[in-house]
Design a protein that fits this description.
The complex is a heterodimer of chains A (494) and B (118). With 494 residues, chain A is an all-alpha fold. Helices cover 81% and strands 2% of the residues of chain A. Chain A is built from 21 helices and 2 strands. A two-stranded antiparallel sheet of chain A has the order 1-2. Chain A starts with a helix and ends with a helix. Mean pLDDT of chain A is 87; it is low at 440-453. Chain B has 118 residues and is mostly helical. Chain B has a single domain, classed as Helix Hairpins (Orthogonal Bundle). Chain B is built from 5 helices and no strands. Chain B has helices at residues 2-7, 9-27, 31-52, 73-103, 108-117. The mean pLDDT of chain B is 88. The chains are: A mainly alpha (494), B mainly alpha (118).
Chain lengths: 494, 118
C-alpha cells in the first residue's frame, strides 16, 4: 500500500487503455469502464489524503533514490487537489452518461486527462511535472475537439498552439533552473537555488519563464486568449471538466513552483518577482470581470469569470502568507465545484430549453425553475455570499492581504466581489425578475429545443443539485479544513 | 561582443530558432505553417538543452571511459520532450484536417469569413 501514489497515476492510465480495448469488442462501452476507474480513483485519493494530512507521503519511482530519481511527494495540499480531481471527474461522468459524447475514444482521453492531472498534483520533480502538464494539455485539446462542427476544432487548435507555447516556456524555465543547479527534484532545487543565490540572473530568468509558462495554463490575463473559445466551443460535460480542473491544477503547480522550488525568501529577495505576480492578479481580476460583463453567450461569460477568479488565487500567491495560501487552496476547491456546477447547469438549461445566451435566460424561473434556482445559488456562491464556499475563500485571501498590509491588492480583492456581482447580477435579474420575451419563448418552441427536453437525465439533475449543495456544505466545513491545512502551509512557507 | 558571439554561438542559434519559430507561429496566416513554426520554436528549446550539456573533451558516463564525464540527463529529458512534440504535432495536424474538411481552407482569414457566415 506504500505504492499508493504511483497507483493513483497508473489506475486511470490503465483504465484509459481498457476503455479503448473495450471499444474494439463493442462500441459505446467506455462509460462503465470510466465509471469504475473514477470510483477507484476517488477511494485511492481519499485514503491517500487521510494519510497525507498526518505526515507527508513520498514514493520513489523505480528505486532511484531522490534527488537523482523521480519522487512523488504528497502533502496536504497535493492530496486535496488529487481528491478534487477524482471527485469532480466522477461527478462529471454521471452527467456525461446522457449528455456527453458516448464514444470509447472520448472516455479513453477523459481518463488520460485524469491521469495527467493527478500526476501533476502529486509529483515532486519539475521535469516530471512538465511531462504531466503536456499529457494534461494533449488530453484537454482532444477533449475540446470532441464537440461537433468546425467551432470546436478551431477552439482546440487555438488552445493547442497557445498551450504549447506556455508549456515550452515552462520547459525552458526548467532548463535554466537545471543549468543553475544540476538537479530536477523540487526539494533539492530549493536548497540548491538558494546556494546559487536568489538574485542571480539565471535563477531570476528561470522563475520568470516558469511563472509565465504557468500563467498561460492558468489563463491569467492577457495570456487567457485560448480559454473562452475552448470552454465555449467544447461539449457541455467537457467544458465543466476542463473549467473545474485544468486551470485549477495549473494554479496548484504555480503554488508548488513559487513556494516549494523558489521559496518565500526568493520573493523577498526579488521585489520584481512579486510585482509580476501582483500585476498578473490585478489585471486578471479587473479585465476578466469587465470582459465577462460584456459577453452575450453564457459559457463565454463563465469562462471570463474564471479568468477573474484565478486572478484572486494568483493574488493570494503574491501575498505569500499563511492565511492567503489557505484562502487560495479553499478558493481553488470552491471555484472548481462552483464553476464546474455552473457549466453543468448551463448545459442542463441549454438541453432543456435551448437557452444559451444571456437574453435567452429572461424569465427562466417560469420555464425551468430547477435550473434557474441552481444557477442562481451557484452564482451567489461565486459572488461570495456567506455561508457558501465562495465567501470563505475570498475572506481568507482578503484577510491575508490585509495582514500583509499589501493595500492595493486588498482593495482589488474586495472590489472583485463587486465585479463578480456585476456580471452575475445581469443574469439573476433576467432569470428571476423579468418575463420571458417573445424572443426567448420562440426558442422554447423551436424544434431542436423540443427534442432536447428528452435529453435531461436523472444523473444530470442529480449532479447539478449535488454541486449546489456542495457549494453550501463546503462553505460550512471550510474553516475546519483551513485549520487542518495549517501545518502543510506552514511547511510550504518555511 | 565578438568574443561572446564566438563562445556562445550555439546558444545564440538556439534562441534565434525560438524567435523565428514564434514569428512564424504568430505571423503566418497558414495553419500548417503555424504548426511548423511551433516545431521550430520547440527545436530551439531542444538545442538549448543539448548545448548546455556539452563538455569539452567529455566522454560518456561509463566506468571504463576516462573523465571528464558528460551528464546524460539533458539528452534523456530532450528525448522525452521530442516524443511530446511529435504527439502535439500529430494532434495539431489531425485538427487541421478536420478544419479543412469543414471550411475548405487553411488560411486563417478565409476560415474566419466562413465561420462568420454560419
Amino acid at each position: 500500500m506504500s505504492s499508493l501514489p504511483a497507483l493513483l497515476v497508473a489506475a486511470p492510465l490503465l483504465g484509459s487503455v481498457l476503455a479503448l480495448l473495450a471499444g474494439l469488442i463493442r462500441s459505446n462501452t467506455g462509460w462503465p469502464v470510466a465509471l469504475v476507474t473514477a470510483a477507484v480513483q476517488v477511494v485511492g485519493a481519499g485514503v491517500l489524503a487521510m494519510r497525507a494530512f498526518d505526515s507527508t507521503v513520498s514514493y520513489v519511482v523505480g528505486g532511484f533514490t531522490a534527488p537523482f530519481g523521480i519522487e512523488l511527494v504528497v502533502d496536504g495540499l497535493s492530496a486535496t487537489i488529487a481528491l478534487l480531481v477524482a471527485v469532480v471527474s466522477l461527478a462529471v461522468l454521471a452527467y456525461s452518461r446522457a449528455a456527453g459524447p458516448r464514444t470509447n475514444a472520448f472516455y479513453a482521453v477523459y481518463l488520460l486527462l485524469v491521469a495527467g492531472l493527478t500526476g501533476m498534483s502529486i509529483t515532486g520533480d519539475v521535469f516530471n511535472m512538465y511531462v504531466f502538464l503536456e499529457i494534461t494539455g494533449l488530453a484537454a485539446y482532444a477533449l475540446v475537439a470532441s464537440g461537433e462542427g468546425g467551432r470546436s476544432a478551431r477552439a482546440a487548435l487555438k488552445y493547442l498552439i497557445v498551450g504549447t507555447i506556455g508549456a515550452s516556456l515552462f520547459l525552458l524555465g526548467i532548463g535554466y533552473a537545471f543549468i543553475a543547479t544540476g538537479t530536477l527534484n523540487m526539494a533539492d532545487l530549493s536548497t540548491q537555488l538558494a546556494a546559487v543565490g536568489h538574485t542571480e540572473p539565471l535563477v531570476q530568468a528561470a522563475f520568470a519563464l516558469l511563472v509565465v509558462g504557468l500563467f498561460v495554463k492558468v489563463a491569467v490575463f492577457p495570456l487567457h486568449a485560448w480559454q473562452p473559445d475552448a470552454y465555449a466551443g467544447s461539449p457541455d460535460s467537457v467544458s465543466a471538466l476542463i473549467s473545474a480542473l485544468v486551470s485549477t491544477v495549473a494554479a496548484y503547480a504555480l503554488i508548488r513552483i513559487v513556494f516549494t522550488v523558489f521559496t518565500v525568501e526568493f520573493l523577498q529577495a526579488n521585489p520584481a518577482a512579486r510585482s509580476l505576480l501582483v500585476a498578473g492578479a490585478v489585471v486578471s481580476i479587473v479585465f476578466g470581470s469587465v470582459l465577462a460583463v460584456s459577453q452575450t453567450e453564457i459559457k463565454r461569460m463563465l469562462a471570463y469569470s474564471s479568468v477573474s477568479q484565478f486572478g484572486l488565487v494568483v493574488g493570494a500567491i503574491a501575498v505569500a502568507n499563511e492565511t492567503a495560501l489557505i484562502g487560495a487552496t479553499i478558493h481553488l476547491v470552491g471555484h472548481a465545484v462552483m464553476k464546474g456546477g455552473l457549466f453543468l447547469t448551463a448545459g442542463l438549461i441549454a438541453t432543456a430549453t435551448g437557452a444559451r445566451t444571456v437574453d435567452d435566460y429572461e424569465g427562466l424561473i417560469q420555464r425551468h425553475p430547477l435550473g434557474a434556482g441552481v444557477f442562481g445559488l451557484l452564482a451567489l456562491s461565486m459572488v461570495g455570499v456567506p455561508p457558501a464556499v465562495g465567501f470563505v475563500g475570498k475572506w481568507y485571501i482578503a484577510l491575508g492581504a490585509v495582514e500583509a498590509s499589501s493595500w492595493p491588492l486588498a482593495v482589488v480583492i474586495l472590489l472583485s466581489t463587486l465585479l463578480t456581482l456585476a456580471y452575475f447580477a445581469r443574469i439573476l435579474e433576467r432569470m428571476f425578475f423579468r418575463d420571458a420575451s417573445p424572443h426567448s419563448s420562440a426558442i422554447r418552441t423551436a424544434p431542436d429545443g423540443g427534442v432536447a427536453v428528452d435529453g435531461v437525465s436523472i444523473g444530470m439533475i442529480g449532479v447539478v443539485v449535488a454541486a449546489a449543495l456542495a457549494a453550501v456544505v463546503l462553505g460550512t466545513l471550510a474553516f475546519e479544513y483551513g485549520q487542518l491545512l495549517e501545518p502543510t502551509v506552514q511547511a510550504l512557507l518555511s | 561582443m565578438i568574443d561572446l558571439l564566438a563562445t556562445r554561438g550555439y546558444f545564440l542559434v538556439a534562441f534565434l530558432l525560438m524567435g523565428v519559430g514564434t514569428y512564424m507561429l504568430i505571423g503566418s496566416p497558414n495553419l500548417i505553417k503555424k504548426v511548423i513554426g511551433m516545431n521550430v520554436f520547440q527545436t530551439g528549446i531542444f538545442l538549448f538543452f543539448i548545448t548546455s550539456a556539452f563538455v569539452e573533451g567529455g566522454s560518456p558516463p561509463l566506468l571504463s571511459a576516462p573523465p571528464p564525464y558528460v551528464s546524460p540527463l539533458p539528452h534523456v529529458l530532450i528525448l522525452t520532450a521530442i516524443v511530446v512534440g511529435v504527439s502535439l504535432t500529430a494532434v495539431a495536424l489531425g485538427l487541421i484536417v478536420r478544419i479543412y474538411d469543414e471550411y475548405g481552407s487553411l488560411r486563417e482569414s478565409e476560415i474566419r469569413e466562413v465561420a462568420a457566415d454560419e
